[in-house]
Amino acid sequence: MLKTHYLHLFNRLFAIQLFIIWLLGCIGVFGSDLTETLWPSVLTGGIFWILLVACSKLPKWQSPRFYWVGLLQLIACWSIFPLFKAIRIHFYSWSADHLLYTIDSYLWLNKSLPEHMIALQAPWFSELIAFCYFSFYFLVIGSALFFFLQRQKNTSEHYFLGLMLMYFFGFIGYFILPAVGPYGAFPTLFTYPVHNGAITLFLTGMVEKGITGMDVFPSLHTGITLYIVGFLFKTGYRKIAWCLTPLAAGLIVATVYLHYHYGIDVIVGALLALLVLHFLFKKKKVENGTHL
Question: pTM for the whole thing?
Fold first, then answer.
């Protein structure tokens, strides 16, 4: 666990990272005439970033300060995230998809992992997997509110720090290797959507609205899912973690099955989650929910 001054330093670094994304996103929005679709992200992202910085400046003796900082970090993060689309359009003229596909094909015996997944496609399975993928948003929101409302400083501090570390390093990966994913980069290889069922089509519509074109490597759907379930295990909420495990497994499979990610994205996302969990708990054991 980070010492207090290092924790404050990371919070500043994360705030700076979010500001850079917001600023570059604003330049992209106005430079590429994307105001009609991304203006809400410019406005809300800026507002929540200001609230985050203001909350971080409150006196240390105000105990509620930390809980609001953690929650505001997540809200600001999600508000600013759509601006990656403007950054991708305005600043990038290349994509890392071919590189990721080549690496993936090498790792999985001359075929990328999403290509191998095609053999598993079935209407009922596609619907189930699409449901699992969509549950990611409820998993993040639910766990964030769970630890926020508990007001257990030690546990909440660990949870939000780990979650923000996942986003911090994930966003760096987006900038270094921007990619749209298998279905967008290789439409002749991957049929999309994989099925025309109600849940799959609903998910497809949601993804189309939120796609940025550079949020593939690493797979934060994989990494954050593993992080949340792992954190629940580590903090004693083992029954909850076991209940979430099948859903988490389906969600991770969905990232590749639905052609949103390459296998290498999933591997790196999983490794990132393991590293963050190791970092959080290597010196200090945190248990709070042993009865759950």
Answer: 0.93
